[in-house]
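#dry-run=false #mode=assembly
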Amino acid sequence: MTILLEQEIRDALDTVKDPEIDAVSILDLGMFEAMEWTETAVGYDVRITLLPTFLGCPALEIIQKNTESALLQVPRVNTVKVVFLFDPPWTSDRITEQGIAGLKSFGIAPPRVVDGKWEIDCPYCGSTFVSIENLFGPTACRSILYCKSCKNPFEAMKPVSTLM
Amino acid sequence: MTEAERLALASLLYQLADDDFLYAYRGSEWLGLAPHIEEDVASSSIAQDSMGHAAMYYQLLEEIGEGKADALAHVRLAHERKNSVLVERVNGPGYYMENPEYDWAYAVVRNYCYTLAKKVRIDSLKKSSYAPLAALAVKINMELYYHLLHWQTWFTQLYQSTETARQKMDAALERVLADFGDLFDYGEATQLIDEMQLMEDQGVLLDRWYQALTPVLVDLNVTLPEMNMTYNGRNGEHSPDLNDALSTLGEVYLLDQSAVW
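#status=ok
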């Protein structure tokens, strides 16, 4: 039963997409940290712990609400509480393989750090011949770049690491 | 934790929270007025991050029984605020909606000096004896990396451009240093903050700030003006600029404090 419930919760979490990047879920982004539940006569009271990517991100509240409503769809789940913790801190290496693929399909270069340096490949053509137009972008977690090979502007997700 | 210790912790958290709150507000006032559109995006993004940091500090205050985070941000009066005077100063003459004659050199110098100081403080807070604060510092530090990179680039590039730019930067540096004296000060809570090992000694932090800044200034052939203190913001002493900022910031919240957002 508990294994089934855990899987159902995971499946539900996977339907909660980043409000601005619908190609990736909060699982893909590595924002999910923990789930707990207690059983009562009427079902389960579930508590989900998520890690915010950037502290001032206005999408957090939307993600919180969407997570609650997604989990309330799971059979026997009675109440849901979603909390954000900043310890452990979210770092960009928590993004999964599926998340990396999802970001690319959306035209966003995934964060990649090689030997302590930020490596950015164009998400369209894979070229490394790119320039940073603005370190800051449309959201706190993204930068604006330009590919000099395929001549496309694109965005990159900023690497976030405790080593910086 | 004794009540005196709790109050010392609260004092430090108010200093950190109010600093980022006012810094974010002054940064957001540049929206639509920055020198070019990329800078508009960058400044706003940094202001948004910084407001997020302030919100987290207010949250920590809520957790130690100081009241609701929103109220702490909006309802406290000027003499209850513990921010450094540096971050409350206006961006220049005029008003956001009418003839804003804001000074970009002042913004760059203030933001760079403040962000460098914030980096020194955050590095110290990572070792704080108060675990929730140490954990928050680790998180803030990751975002701060980009802020510092941004302001250091502006600072060095403006200093290396025209003679006019250099004069404006020198004048701005003069004004920023005239207010900088309370930035590393802990005010009345100094002794307990030290005893509780919440954060390192202010002299140690100030030295680190000088050490980080000196090579940049040497490269640019800039002499640092004398540091002074006009008011000690840590003890609730402030310039009239703070009152104006607070009444604008709290305008909507104060209309109806029980409203649900």
